[in-house]
TrEMBL record:
Location in the cell: Cell membrane
Membrane-related topology note: Multi-pass membrane protein
Name listed for the protein in its UniProt record: Predicted arabinose efflux permease, MFS family
Transmembrane feature ranges: 12-31, 58-77, 84-103, 109-130, 142-164, 170-192, 212-233, 245-268, 275-295, 301-321, 342-361, 367-385
Top-level taxon of the source organism: Bacteria
Domain Major facilitator superfamily (MFS) profile stretches: 17-390
Alphabetical list of InterPro entries matching this protein: MFS, MFS_dom, MFS_Efflux_Transporters, MFS_trans_sf
Sorted UniProt keywords: Cell membrane, Membrane, Transmembrane, Transmembrane helix
Principal subcellular localisation of the protein: membrane
GO terms of molecular function: transmembrane transporter activity
UniProt keyword Repeat, yes or no: no
Length: 390
């Protein structure tokens, strides 16, 4: 059967198995990014580095993703999608396995930057790749299924790989992740359809996208949504300790993860038909969950409900924003989602810095105020953004 016939067949019915395979790519993608966070004390002790240097293993990865996403997605737009994803998986696998072997901090940082560059290309391209394999009315569902790997990685993958690392050592955890990525790459080589790239035209260039008002609206919503979530999430342990949550950080993460997984399932079902409603509800849930924490944070059952509601709002964030920006262009969806992806990563850095400054002057309870102030305008903009979210 020819590649064209394979692609044509995939658009007749939703290709669940292919989308789930793509979801496994985003699963290991987010694990590659966050891996050092779970085993940071071990890394710091073994390499004899400071806490700040250990944090740079995640920070430089994110910076590389943000900086290189737009230019490299533009350069690789003409590449065959299947070949490109295999190259990126090879980069992920190599960077993780070699990090697990080496003891030189400088080289490890370089390898983390290489991993970040791969991530900067992977996140936007895999969403666009998935959309090309389904009918237009299933674009949102495709993105939701693919990006479910991101949510599953945060809610289930990180606790599991952290447990493995604490038991067998941080190096074993990195190497194990690299081997898992190789297995996924082999499966992708066999199962993914071969899809040709696109030509970068003037209308699909990053600069032309910034001239589209609805794209700017989506980027603004990305900024508000990401900052509202990550400003509080990055310092979640401090917030949990402040309100003395029963069950501690483990309880908070379990409830947050449960809410995220449920909302991802809802996003898979409803994103294509109700994008604007879901986006508005997402921001509204941020406001509600933060207000519940502020008013009833020290009351155990109510605080637990707040973390669950917060997870509900967090789960579909990537899906909703990437679906919204991809709807604004007919071609060059990889470039459009790369612009959104860069805005996403830059927003995380801004949120982390701003929330860190807040914590330096005030108590952790200031974080829910920070999230609320950002989420309210996001909710209002979503209500009236008929073109950007229509």
């Amino acid at each position: 059967m020819s590649n064209q016939q394979t692609i044509a067949r995939s658009t007749n019915a939703f290709p669940w198995l292919i989308m789930i395979l793509m979801s496994s790519v985003t699963f290991v993608g987010i694990l590659s990014e966050l891996m050092p966070s779970g085993v940071m004390p071990q890394i710091n002790s073994d390499l004899n580095i400071s806490e700040l240097q250990g944090g740079n293993l995640v920070g430089y990865y994110a910076i590389a993703s943000a900086i290189f996403a737009i230019p490299l997605v533009s350069v690789t737009l003409k590449f065959n999608r299947k070949i490109l994803i295999l190259i990126l998986l090879a980069g992920f696998a190599a960077s993780n396995i070699v990090v697990g072997i080496l003891a030189n901090y400088t080289i490890i940082i370089i390898l983390r930057i290489i991993g970040g560059i791969c991530a900067g290309v992977m996140w936007p391209m895999i969403a666009a790749y998935g959309m090309r394999l389904v009918n237009h009315e299933h674009h949102g569902k495709a993105i939701a299924v693919i990006m479910a790997g991101n949510t599953l990685g945060i809610s289930a993958g990180m606790p599991s790989i952290t447990f493995f690392g604490n038991r067998y050592g941080w190096r074993a955890a990195f190497i194990a992740l690299g081997i898992m990525i190789i297995a996924i790459a082999v499966t992708c080589a066999v199962a993914l359809p071969s899809t040709p790239g696109e030509k970068l035209t003037r209308s699909s260039s990053p600069f032309s996208l910034f001239k589209i008002p609805s794209v700017l609206t989506v980027l603004l919503l990305t900024l508000l949504g990401v900052m509202a979530h990550y400003g509080a999430y990055v310092y979640l342990t401090r917030l949990v300790d402040e309100i003395e949550l029963l069950g501690g950080i483990e309880s908070a993460l379990l409830l947050f993860g449960s809410g995220s997984l449920i909302s991802v399932l809802l996003a898979i079902k409803y994103t294509d038909k109700h994008l604007r409603l879901l986006t508005t509800v997402m921001f509204a849930l941020v406001v509600i969950s933060m207000l519940v924490l502020l008013l009833f944070g020290r009351k155990t059952i109510v605080a637990h409900v707040a973390f669950f509601l917060w997870g509900l709002s967090f789960g579909p964030l990537v899906t909703l924003m990437q679906t919204a920006v991809s709807r604004q262009v007919e071609s060059g969806k990889d470039v459009a989602t790369s612009v959104q992806s860069s805005a996403f990563n830059l927003s995380i850095m801004i949120a982390t810095s701003a929330a860190g400054i807040l914590l330096g002057s005030y108590s952790p309870i200031s974080l829910p105020y920070f999230a609320t102030v950002l989420a309210i305008p996001g909710m209002i903009i979503s209500i009236f953004a008929k073109k950007a979210l229509g």
